[in-house]
Amino acid sequence: MDRKRRRPDGHNGFEHHTMKIPRESPRENLAQGRGGYHRQGANFPLDLPSFLNHLDNCDRHQVLPFLLKRRDELAEILNGMELGSPEVHCIVRALRRAADMAGSKEKTQSVLQLVMRSPFLLRSLLHSIAVFNDYGGHVDRGVMDDLIAFLRHLTLAFPESIQTCISAPVDMLSARLQRLQSLGACFSWPMKKQLLDLERAVNEAFPGEWRMPTWGIFNPEQPKDFRNLSIFPSSQDMIGLANPMVFPNKITGPYESNFAYIDTHFRLLREDFVKPLREEITAYLAPRSHFVEMSGGSREMKVYRNARVLHPVCQWEGVMYKVQFDVDKVRHGASWGSKRLGKGSLVCLLATDCEEIFFASVAKSSPKLLSQGLVLLKFSSSHLELSKHVYRHRFMMMESPAYFEAYRHVLQGLQEMDVKRIPFQRYIVKCRPSVHPPAYLQQRDVSLDLLPLLRNVPDAVEAEMEIDLQDDSSPLVKPGAEQPVAEDFFDPTEDSISSTETAEEGNPSDEGMRAAEESIPLVAEGDVNMEEEHRPAAERSSGPGQEFLRIREQPEEGRPGLALETAGSSRRGNDPAETCPDPVLQQGKLVGQGDSLTGQDMYKVNPFKQDFRSLRWLKHFDRSQLKALQKALKREFALIQGPPGTGKSFLGLKLVELLLHNQNLWQGNDGNRCPILIVCQTKHALEQLLEGILEFKTTGIVRIGGFSKNQKLQTLSLEAIRKATLQKILTPTQRRRFKELKEQIESIKKDIMFCSKVLELLPVGILHEKELEPEMKLDMTELGLTSIPVDNLEETVILKWLQIPPHLWPQDANGMGPETKSSRYFTYSPSEKSPSTEFKCRYKACEEEEEEFEFDPDGSDPRDPLCSIEQWAGEKFAFVMDPDVSDTDTLGIRKYLADQNVMGEEEVRSFQDVWELALVDRWRLYRKWKVTYEGKLQASINGNVCLYEKAAQDLYELILEEDLMILKTADVLAMTTTGAAKYRALLHKIKPPIVIMEEAAEVLEAHVLTALTPSCQHLIMIGDYNQLKPKLTDYTLASEYHLDVSLFQRMVKNHIPHEQLSHQHRMRPEISQLLSSTFYSSLKDHRSVSLYEDIKGLAKNIFFVEHQVDEDRNTEAQGHSNAHEAHFLVGLCQHLLRQGYSTDQITILTPYVAQMWQIRFMVRDLGMAAISVKAIDDFQGEASDIVLLSMVRSDWEERADLSRDKNHLCVAFSRARMGLFCVGNFQMLQQSPEKKTWRLLLQMLGERGLLGKGLPLPCPNHPESQILIETPEHFQRFPDWACDRPCDSRLECGHLCKHRCHVHTPGQGTYRCKEPCGRTLCSGGHRCPKRCWEQCSPCKEMVEKVVPECGHVQRVACSLPSEGLPCDHPCERLLDCGHPCQQRCSENCTDFPCVVKCTEVLQCGHPCMGTCTDCLEGRLHRGCNRKCGRLLLCGHQCKDPCADSCQPCRLPCDCKCGHGQCQKRCGEICSPCLKPCPWRCQHHQCSRACFEECDRPRCDQPCDQTLPCGHPCIGLCGEACPPLCRMCHAPKLTSAFFGSEGDPAARFVVLEGCGHVLEVGRMDQLMDEGPRPLQLESCPQCSTLIHWHSRYNNVIKTRWQGINQVKSIILGSTEEIEEKKQQLTENIIAASINLHYGEQRYNIRKRVEASRSLPELAALERALGIFRFLDMVRKQAKACTAERRVSLELKLTKLDWWLGTKRATFTHQQLAECRNEIVRISYQADLMRLLSHWEARNTALPGEVANTVDSLLGNLEEKLTEDSELKVKGDLAKIGELLSCRELWISEDERLSVAKDIEMAKRDWYQCPAGHLYAVEECGESDQAECLECTLLIGGESQHPEEGISPVAEVDGSSPCASGVSVGNLTPESESCERLAQQLEPIVQTDMPPVEN
């Protein structure tokens, strides 16, 4: 340290006597005082361990109150005790936390002053630093952070004590850490940065120069050549040197050299984005209290914590890195808009455990990605360097406040610029005031065609020109004739070149040019003082004055290329110009034009010889515009300054149009076209300029960069043009090269993605042994291993070796299926040229595997498709942890994977068999192999990244070539300044000779330089330096280094010739006077601005409202806001809208963004979101009819900073056309830096009555009455204020307004006249009964009128016409079915169905509930709606509608046992209970399963239990005890039911279901009697079903087994169902249903797949047959004539509708009727096809056949019956024999197939005494049937079973029948059962699925 410290004599600098610092550890000489600590003097009673322990455990927020409360104890500790290092660290940590929480310098001093008054810094702290040591090569980071922050707090709180007190421990700490660093200790970058900041704070307290240690993070010697500086910041930039090599912008005088010029601007621009980031990092790493003090509580630092670099991501632009950060830790309320992590933003990544700091730019982001905490970054460091650091740390990512993209390309352009070839260095660097003409105009004998200047001149201007021409006595200058130039036009000092300059420049042509300029004759004096008050061309505006002319091409006959007409201007009726003829253009030439000039040369002028102001046919320009226009054309370096509203944009458009029209002058002669380059600072200004160019040129314009919302401009973008034309202009070689590059990039991208995915899985997975086999074999070869965990016959050996529990292994036990064990290594085939091919294909372990598994490199084999990158990477691992599993085993594996302990090579040499190692050592060896594997992966990624970057660069260059081909054909290029710098390589190849720059005064000088190329010959800059200046990020660079001075302003300051426009066409005179008195003394008003109307609803057109209300003090707001002003302007805005102004006419401006958002929220909540609310900076270049301005600042404690420069005021006051209203605290603004300007403005406003404490609102009808609006509440209190006088205005209706004076629009349309109307409404003389204000409606007087169509009389409103009048009489017509129509007379009968009730009785005996339409006129009836109510097999009643067969029961099954109840439905087969039977007693016990028949007898022994009454139980052993007592309930118990209840020895059982107590003897007889019906037994007393009873379980089980057997037979077995499904599916596929029923066939097929029973499949089969036959009938109809086809289609459609309405079970009657209807229609189709066939042959049918056909068709219109069908069949047979036409008909076999499909057999069930089941057919003819098991006969005549035979309970509700088929004890698998099921399948279900049309 080269510092000299001043210390007082006799003192050591700490204000204490000199004392010796003990060198030994204080713990070695501890006294035995209280607490174990030694202090000088008497024993100290303080319990120090307790005190320090409390400090350690104290919360951060409680440390400061604790120390302040116990100040005395802390003072004694600091003053008296010798503390060891742990105690010192504890105290330092506590003091650091207390200072952090202090929040201000005063609080920090209050807690740290005890330290400054004690010897703690010298004695204990210095000793602790002296013995400070590192641990394992790294210093304890927590201790260091606390110590540095503590010392930094001291320097901030006590800067006066740095020399005398604080510098000693800082120097000691620095020396100690340097020593540790030399010994190999590592320090993180944030720690070194904090230490440097601390040392700088100490060194700055000492005078003279001083040196600091570099700590390895900065180089004291900075590069002197700016070209050697990196564009991205470096760690050295973040240090912040005291004297950076930055020099101020030289705003006056020339630069020393070209190098000094570029170097200055490069370093200034770079410092502008580096300094804010450096300050933020410094503030973030500084002590917290200091940070709070700096930020003032209102500064937002964009910090993103816990950032992790995941993996590389390949984009077309190159390789980026995906970074993930914590979204939850981002400051609450931050929105992911364009202000956060936008593309091109600069971020800095630093970590507390990393020695490096990294910088990157945002390559890709979106709100969706950012909300997930993801962003893509492009790092400045190399990929190799990144791979060493970024994956191992968690970073804190800070975003720079400066937008890096706007700096990056400009700085690169400056570095690449040739210092010796700076464009226009004569003026830019040397500041020479004499300007040369453009190089393409070096020959002075040139002519410009000024025809574009005459396009679209408004008619009013033409008339004005005629009047001026008639009144003017001066001679008219003819187009094409040379005119002497005015003396004041050419200034020799501007355009001439001195001899000295000529000699220096060495340009031989300069002397000739100067001589030519001096020889130009001057114009006559009569033309010098030409009229200046001419209306210029209109600016883009819709204001009443029509500020500027619009440009439009409209060539007409006789006037080629010329069109003069009004472009949106408003003519006034009293303007004499409307009746004047066109004096300028008559017969295709100007007035006074000579005939000697041809049409092509009439408007050509030499700009060097003729003054444009002398051309009277350009009188629509003012003189300043013409002068600026001519100077811009003849100067190669042209500057045009235009005050607000003077037409800068208009002049720029005219220059573009004029140069394009005369491009033959500046285009080269070599055939290469060069476009004009147009550059603007902002995208908005550029788009406005392009919209103006599109009005006169629609092709040849290209917009490079940026996306536009304007649809017209989107087609001009380079991307859109490239898509439209690129394929047409590319050569085959270019196309082939482009394809090769894309394929190469895609191939490398896959390699990088794969390796990155494997790297991502390494921390959470265990690599497969096949992957580690090369590393293992290498250790076998070099280190002597004899065994490795690899087995060619078994997979995942490594999991066994690492002792992974088997339950965590993959599901297939070995980690993969048999087909993927080896092919897993061959599922991805990278290109052979890829550098990672060796890495990825290295595990083709043996030739056998290669021969066994083939792989298609093209991926065309569908049996082995290419898996995704993620899947393939995952197959490299034998085990990957599931993040959702957190059991003990998984946590142990996660711990092993996270461990970083790796086995060394020497230790590997010490053993041979890896299976003998302990588990910990196995993991260490695995990690050794994994590290080697990871290194190879990373090397592969690095190599691929370099290849990818090269390929991406080649692709970019190819695209650049393609873009160059497109741009060579363009005439105009449009770019922003940032875009020009970004695409500078393209511009250098295009070589634009002319550059026109709008908003030049807002462009930084460096941006202008990078937009220029060495080929530029002509630069035109248009702007106004009195308005906004260039925007900078750092204010210091503007105030001290003048970086905000634009090139435009610097050239003006150096007296480079420039022109200023003088006439403004925007603001009314009252507003423009604000500017002319302060900013532009020579500004004049055009006559058009005096034509504005006054602002409605306000007394003044301009007014400043003063207030004294303080601004908001919300510290969370990012800026300044003022709620009073916001509410006031919003109220004023509402008032203006009520006056009739539209939302696009009003704009609210404010200097501060916080105020802007506050007002935006207010107007949005009030439904005025369309109001434009903008900041002043964002409204530059725009205008509005009415501007409301909020000045915001009203805080006397702070200095008002409203626009420290006058430029913002100039912009704010110049945006309004018609009205300007400002609100602010003007007394405080008079104390601002621009107080002189404000005092002048306010004085002028006060003198004119335009300043006050309230806004005057006049009465709308009596302006002399006014009210003052002083607060926002007044707008709400007086929304439509008017005076108290009567209105008495005449309304449109002629009546007088009787209201009090009020606000109204012309015509009084918003107010209601309440006088009676009385207007005549109709020819009948009826009067309007409404009020005058109401709209008259048609006459509603009721009159009688005759309906012409039917003749009925209707009483209707008078206004209704008779024609088309609806008739309400009942209809008297009959429908086609014969029933009378039920509708009204005027309604169409065919539009409504017949609603007459059907009168037929259904076969079930119930009347039909359908209508005539529902039942298709009685041919197809609706189903019965009555509830069925039949008793089903299970004992439940059927709840479905009445039908021939019942659906399976859908109620829960009642089958139960002692273990529980069946959980299925009744219609399903019950599952047997396999638990042991619970029926047991002390005498017997069942040994079988619960579902089997019990093998024990019933126990008849009496029950030995005693009832609660004390009497013995009357039940049996092992059964439930009856609740009745023989003694207590004798009357009830002995009531006669069986008759044996009175026997004293009688025993009883109780039924669980109903609770009845029955005598057991008779109950046993009843249960054991002969065969019972196949239904559950029931209580003989109440018929309640007995579902379970232990004594009668065998009987109940027999019943349930029989029921399940029936279910199994009916529903079918699984094999039968699958076989039936397959058969039916084949039938569906084979069915040729292609016309109308394709959807139905599809639905049937889907239902077949879901079916689970044979009856359901049978119903679907029948449905298929119906639709197949209907499809055949439709084919027949298609072969008929059109009329017959329509008739058949109508019938079939009705049938389809009927089928589609079926959602319930079909009855036999419905199926039979459906069959008859289908057959009937088929017969009709056959006959109609026969007739159509004969008609097609033009042959008449024989008479007999024709009569028969007609008769048949008539009969077939009726319902088809059995008799009529027989007759039809006979007649058709005769016709077929006579005509031989059977091939035209549907065959009878096909017709019979429908009948067979629908024909149903009806059978019932019986049961023999042995329990055998029977299915008996209901035929009534068979006499007997024989049981196959016991040959028991059944009688048949009476249709009742013989004695002992009982009918089975109905499955489908059908009645018993007389003949049957025995089923015995068949099983579902037997063949006889299969045959029987075919007979019985219709019994359970005879329905057909509904048809979905």
Describe what this molecule looks like in 3D.
By secondary structure, this protein is of the alpha/beta class. The strands form twelve sheets. It has a seven-stranded parallel β-sheet. A six-stranded antiparallel beta barrel has the order 1-2-5-4-3-6. 38% of the residues are buried. The N terminus and C terminus are likely disordered.
Strand order of the largest sheet: 13-16-12-17-18-11-19
Strand percentage? 5-15%
**Into which percent range does the helicity of residues fall?**
25-40%
Query: Biggest β-sheet, characterized?
Result: 7 strands, parallel
Low-confidence stretches: 1-45, 291-298, 459-598, 813-867, 1797-1802, 1818-1826, 1831-1893
Figure out the total of helices.
Answer: 57
Class based on secondary structure composition and strand pairing: alpha/beta
* Rounded Rg: 52 Å
- Multimeric status of the protein: single chain
The strand count comes to 39
Give the CA-CA distance, first to last residue.
Answer: 97 Å
Please give the structural blueprint:
Elements: H1 48-57, H2 63-69, H3 71-80, H4 85-102, H5 105-116, H6 121-130, H7 141-157, H8 162-182, H9 189-203, H10 258-285, H11 288-295, E1 303-315, E2 318-324, E3 346-350, E4 358-364, H12 367-371, E5 374-379, H13 383-389, E6 395-399, H14 405-416, H15 425-428, E7 448-449, H16 459-471, H17 492-495, H18 499-505, H19 509-518, E8 585-586, E9 589-590, E10 604-605, H20 623-634, E11 637-641, H21 648-661, E12 676-680, H22 683-693, E13 701-703, H23 711-714, H24 718-729, H25 732-761, E14 765-767, H26 769-783, H27 797-801, H28 837-840, H29 847-852, H30 869-874, E15 877-880, H31 888-898, H32 905-909, H33 919-967, E16 972-976, H34 977-982, H35 984-990, E17 994-997, H36 1005-1011, E18 1018-1023, H37 1036-1039, H38 1047-1053, E19 1059-1060, E20 1063-1064, H39 1069-1076, E21 1084-1085, E22 1102-1106, H40 1123-1138, E23 1146-1150, H41 1153-1165, E24 1172-1175, E25 1184-1190, H42 1207-1213, E26 1216-1224, H43 1226-1229, H44 1235-1247, E27 1251-1252, E28 1255-1258, E29 1266-1269, H45 1272-1277, E30 1342-1346, E31 1353-1357, E32 1456-1457, E33 1460-1461, H46 1530-1533, E34 1548-1550, ...
